[in-house]
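Q: I'm writing up a methods section and want to include an example of the input and output format. Could you take the sequence below and give the corresponding predicted structure tokens, formatted cleanly so I can copy it straight into the document?
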Amino acid sequence: MSLKVPYAWEVRLLTWAEEALRTQSSSGGTHADAQLLDAAYHQCETITSLHSRTFFLASGLLPEPKRRAARALYAFCRVTDDIVDQNTSSQHRLKALQDWQRRVMQSHPPSNDLVALAWADTCARFSIPRGYAEQLINGVARDLTQVRYQTFAELAEYSYGVASTVGLMAMHITGFAGEQALPYAVKLGVALQVTNILRDVAEDWRTGRLYLPLEELALFGLTEDDLAQGVVDNRWRRFMKHQIDRNRHLYEESWPGIAMLDPDGRFAIGAAAELYCAILKDIEDHDYDVFSRRAHVSLVGKVRRLPSIWWRSRRSVTLA
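A: Here is the clean output for your methods example:
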């Protein structure tokens, strides 16, 4: 299997991924007893079910030890993100994030910090390089200082920090064939994050953030005033079609990486990719209006897609 020549923006991201892969990973395990660990993982399961029905459904397709670990990963990311989204000063949020980083990066966190405890246990069990968690925290911290992105390359770098790192950590949970899988995980992470960005334009705008590349908005004749007014005209439709076409292409290019995962993890990762990609179709079906409604895929729609996703995850291995 061969991967096409990387996009210019991919090169730096792949370098970051390779550097983090070589950082130290935890070993041995936590000192917590089994009952406390069960409580910690249950807390992570609750957080996942409350905040991401798609991830909860996709992770449910994993065998039990990997399922618990995937939900600990989600909870770690959720807590990190929530700290930055607090309605407090940037200085206060930065200090809270630094305090969280100190706790969550410990091999043996306090027994009353359940998410940190489950995450420490997951890192030890699946040998997750600590560099990826550090990159994620640094990526999320970027929201404290940067609220505009000039080019797609800049946006891709942000997306690596907050999403590709998640995929790279998830690969250690599912198991993967080797370093040749890294570019696919990086690309999928960018695709997933850009999907979030396209879905959440209105919500992000209300918090003072604009992730859409300013250079490309200008290319299609759009201004920030248009976004503030929620204008859906032919300029916006052409702009969104361009964004969605590129995003779908990234999803397609990431799919061969599914074959590089351990067999019991392919369906879950394939489901996560396909169910998020389906959000793009919902945006199209509602005339690219992401201002008056939040694009989503219903539970019935998700379940209906699972058989074809299962078949594709199997077929991708045959074609590899």
